[in-house]
Amino acid sequence: MVKCAQAKCPIFYAEGENKMRQKISFDKNWKFHRGEIDTPFPVSKSAAYMQAKTEHAKWGPASIFYNDSAENYVPGTPICTDEWQTVSLPHDFIIEQTPDQQNNCALGYFRYENAWYRNRFSLSEGDRGKRIALYFEGVATHATVYVNGCLMKHNFCGYVSFEVDVTDVVRFDADNLVAVYVETTDHEGWWYSGGGIYRSVWLIKTAPVSVDLWGVYLHPERQDHENWLVPVETTLRNDKLSAVRAEILTTLVGPGGNPAASARGELTVAAKGKDVLLQAIPVKNPELWDMESPCLYTARTQVFLDGEEADCVETRFGFRTIRFDAERGFFLNGRSVKIQGVCCHQDYGLTGKAVPGRVQRYRLQLLKEMGASGFRTSHYPHSETTMDALDEMGFLVMDETRWFSSTEEGLAQLEMLVKRDRNRPGVILWSIANEEPHQLTDVGRRISETMKAFVKKLDRTRPVTAAISNDPLSAEATGVYDVIGVNYNLAQFDDIHRKYPAHPVFSSECCATGTTRGWYLPDAPERGYISAYDHDSSKSFLSREKTWRFIMEREWLFGGYQWTGIEHRGETVWPRLCSQSGALDLYLQRKDAFYQNQSLWTKEPMIHLLPHWNLFGREGETVSVRAYTNCEEAELFQDGVSLGVRKIRPYGHAEWKVSFQPGKLVAVWNRLLRFTRMVQ
Hints:
Layout: E1 2-3, E2 12-13, E3 21-25, E4 30-34, H1 45-51, E5 85-87, E6 115-123, E7 131-136, E8 142-147, E9 150-155, E10 162-165, E11 174-183, E12 201-206, E13 209-218, E14 221-222, E15 227-238, E16 244-253, E17 259-269, E18 273-284, E19 297-305, E20 308-317, E21 322-325, E22 329-332, E23 335-337, E24 339-344, H2 357-370, E25 374-377, H3 384-393, E26 396-400, H4 408-421, E27 427-434, H5 442-458, E28 464-468, E29 484-487, H6 493-499, E30 505-511, H7 544-552, E31 557-563, H8 592-601, E32 607-610, E33 622-629, E34 633-638, E35 641-647, E36 654-659, E37 664-669, E38 673-678
Helix pairs in contact: 2-3, 4-5
């Protein structure tokens, strides 16, 4: 056995020329065309006849005969006069524009248009007999996929991953063409939506008998202090024309790479069918996954036919227990935990939705430094890279679907989310809705009941929740959820707890306090600036300090997810490009709110002063100076003169009124360590 050399590929294949499973990056050398392509339809009967067949795209950019480059010109075929460019994935073509006030404010002031992508690939004769698939991690927003002129897939959500089985339409020892038509004008949110193939694409080759996509499900169960049982469900697919008898070996590998336990089993899978093998593997004294020590195990699943290995995949998981108590809150591995969470969108200021993996991880490292222990995937499935990093860093994740819908399409999207992420120990909640008006109605109750029941068929180990903002105390759907998530509405929390005494409750979204980094004057709407001091944005959007004190004063309220951890484009008012609610700005620079959260959420002694002391032109003006610290008291010195000691109430801050003069401010906590703001 050798490990696949492809990055991000947790898969093994057999040595030799015919590798049993390959996951090949399909991110390079895409041809891209912005906007529609007018392809006149021929007037002949033969044209209408041929477009009604399997390979119906004989004309236009979905056709394998279409020329998107002079290099690929085939004599006798139509010449493409439109401009195409070569791009690599991930790719967001909307972010390339300049924001324009004439466009929709919620969507980031960008113009949304449609586009085409094309890419060619080759398969050798040795690939004949294998299962061939394309795996798209994310395309915004609607995607229509063609292969060799054959319509293969419509995808209706810009946040879900999907697989396209192309086995029956590919050609061997010849070029193949995949074309993707992207529609961005049907929006799924009130935030920056972007456009394009903004996550990676993979070409996957397997034997005809293989583990299905997201086909391994492990849910460790603690039996007693030392012993665990790991139920394993393995979905095997058989793309052969005859039934097969397969043997499956499941090996659990510890964090250090040593096998911890294993089990064998057999099953028969019908021709062109799927079946599930159930196993239960005992494990003694495993290392637990926790926030500070996120130990991850690996399940290696090997498939054998007549003693020969046909497939092998690896699936990460972890050992941990979670419990939600209506009176005492949330428990991780038997320990009470108050979740210090943030909500986040997935875009990055510079690259839009096409976020490099290293940036995704860096974002989370900064949130961890800030003291965050929880992450809400608002309001849709986030990338696999982000989800992997959340597990590795010990975040407690509220995992959310995009569509609040019990339709076939809505449930298919929910299935993708749950199957992809149900092995992740960091995921502790499934969220099936966000701020849906129908949560007030009987319709919302029925949709919630159907979606909740659907989740339970796929994963029985985590509670189902939703984020409710429209009168959660009276909403008909509130009592349906295992755990009640409330957005804002702090005045209703105590009544909700009394009305639903058996339901755990948490703040699924709170604060929404916009601040501009470095602006310490009153709000200046004409410039897009908001005061950097923590404040109430409205009667609903209370300050971070007030919100966190409210949460901490109630044992039964097990935590909250702050809006937001990181600024995101859209949902704004001109000339701002974002709501500025994040603790990190659009470009991942730390704001005062970052340090305020540190003072509320971390234990290592720290102190942060605001404002900066470069206030030229404001000489003699009285300035509010604040210190965010997790210590019990702070003393402020101006040019060596003490301005007094301030005792800091729990979850509060220190404050002084200071006459500005150029010079030096020094804040001291417990008179031991100094932090300085000064003008040189």
